[in-house]
Design brief:
By secondary structure, this protein is α/β, with parallel strands linked by helices. It is about 30% helix and about 25% strand. The protein is globular. Bound molecules: ligand LLP.
Length: about 425
């Protein structure tokens, strides 16, 4: 559920008309709903009841510091994958003790920065990473908390680009290697083993693959226990899907209840989750305006002022996101349209074959754009990054200013003449 609804025939974000926001801040722009973000995070948190847990929001989904600050205020932890994301979480007043650091390629400077602020856990994915962390922790005179990301070889049944838990994927360690690494880690002076971790993919619409992965994790946990290695937490990653079209993903509570049911009373580990999309995805929309309507013998194109550089998911994954008018009141006739951007690529589309009643100048909303929208945007075709806005009931906050043309070239230099 979200808070982008029609009142009369006008689309609103919470209590503010989208058209009003565009009057002030222009288009294209991303608009987020604070109530939706809050509600989604709390759904995860509350489903655990009194069971020990930590929701570590996956920063890559949407890393605007206003959003991180909002979630930090709710008590959220964070899943980061770079020093940039670490810096953002700290700036947004996130608690370092609630940060887990994932990713296959952590550089030395990134590990040092995370050790200095004292993060909750490094999720190790590569053999050499353990030795690197041990050495750097030693040099700083600290002990590094670690977990190993295991690759459970489970099919997440999602798009191949966002499936991560199969043995042919670059992520995690297989069971044998993970156990070998745990035993090595147990002997290292600057390492403290705290958990185990897995993440099998994104936009999962069934609980089955999550439970299969949990089963594999529990097998490894029991092998480790027999070898005298006890863990404090199980991090089951992110990946819960959302409804873009007609998908029916389980609710966070259904998914969490299934996990807790499987764990029963025989386990007392703290459970960590790393949801990104399920918190931010349906909490944001992308607003764009129609520049031209172009009709050819074969196709009708609505050429809009947003493009693949602003929202790359349709081009990159052939992802379907709902496109709706901001104002439903129209005299136009219904036709089937491809909604395309001005970029010089045939792959520059936001939606194809959409039955809509369109007129030049109309505003359109591309729903479910709160996750992997702005964070995957680029300056391709020298298009400045667009504004981000957060609505809180009747109040509108600009949370990222539209980039100016000067800012576009700010870090570039002419060669000496
Ligand atoms: N944890 C780890 C280690 C991850 O790699 C990811 C996402 C998450 C958590 C959060 O997953 P979520 O709950 O958001 O599904 N750009 C793609 C999605 C890439 C996901 C990458 N990893 C898209 O737009 O669909």
């Amino acid at each position: 559920m979200d808070y982008f609804n029609y009142r009369g025939q006008q689309l609103f974000a919470e209590d503010v008309a989208i058209a009003k926001i565009v009057e002030e801040y222009g288009s294209p722009c991303y608009i987020y709903s604070k109530a939706t973000l809050t509600r989604h995070w709390q759904e995860f948190d509350q489903a655990f009841g009194s069971y020990p847990h930590l929701i570590c929001y996956a920063v890559k989904a949407n890393s605007n510091i206003a959003i991180l600050n909002l979630l930090a205020g709710l008590g959220s932890g964070f899943d980061i994958v770079s020093i940039g994301e670490l810096e953002r979480v700290i700036t947004a007043k996130g608690d370092p003790k609630k940060i887990v650091f994932s990713g296959v390629g952590k550089r030395k400077d990134e590990i040092i920065a995370a050790l200095k602020v004292g993060i909750r856990c490094f999720n190790i994915e590569v053999v050499g990473e353990l030795d690197r962390i041990n050495q750097l922790a030693g040099e700083l005179g600290v002990v590094a908390p670690v977990s190993f990301r295991v690759n459970p070889n489970v099919d997440a049944k999602t798009h191949p680009y966002i499936s991560t838990g199969l043995k042919e994927n670059k992520f995690g360690l297989d069971t044998q290697l993970a156990i070998h690494e745990y035993l090595r880690a147990a002997e290292m002076p600057h390492i403290k083993i705290v958990g185990i971790d897995c993440h099998i993919g994104s936009q999962l619409t069934e609980t089955g693959p999550f439970l299969d992965a949990l089963e594999k994790v529990l097998i490894i946990v029991s092998i480790l226990e027999k070898k005298g290695i006890t863990l404090e937490h199980l991090d089951l990653g992110g990946g819960l899907g959302i409804c873009y079209n007609d998908e029916q993903p389980p609710k966070p509570s259904t998914y969490i209840n299934a996990i807790l049911k499987r764990l029963g009373k025989s386990y007392s580990y703290e459970i960590l989750l790393e949801p990104g999309r399920a918190i931010a995805g349906n909490a944001g929309i992308l607003i764009t305006q129609i520049e031209y309507l172009k009709t050819t013998a074969d196709k009708n194109f609505a050429i809009v002022n947003a493009a693949m550089n602003d929202l790359v998911r349709p081009s990159l994954y052939n992802a379907w996101q709902e496109i709706i008018p901001v104002n439903q009141q129209t005299n136009a006739t219904m036709f089937t349209w491809d909604i395309v951007g001005p970029i010089c690529e045939t792959g520059d589309f936001l939606g194809k074959n959409r039955p809509l009643k369109l007129t030049e100048g109309d505003l359109l909303a591309i729903r479910s754009s709160g996750a992997y929208g702005f964070t995957m945007s680029s300056n391709y075709n020298s298009r400045p990054r667009i504004a981000e806005i957060m609505v809180d009931a009747k109040t509108v906050h600009l949370i990222k200013k539209r980039e100016s043309l000067q800012e576009l070239m700010a870090n570039e230099y002419l060669l000496p003449q």
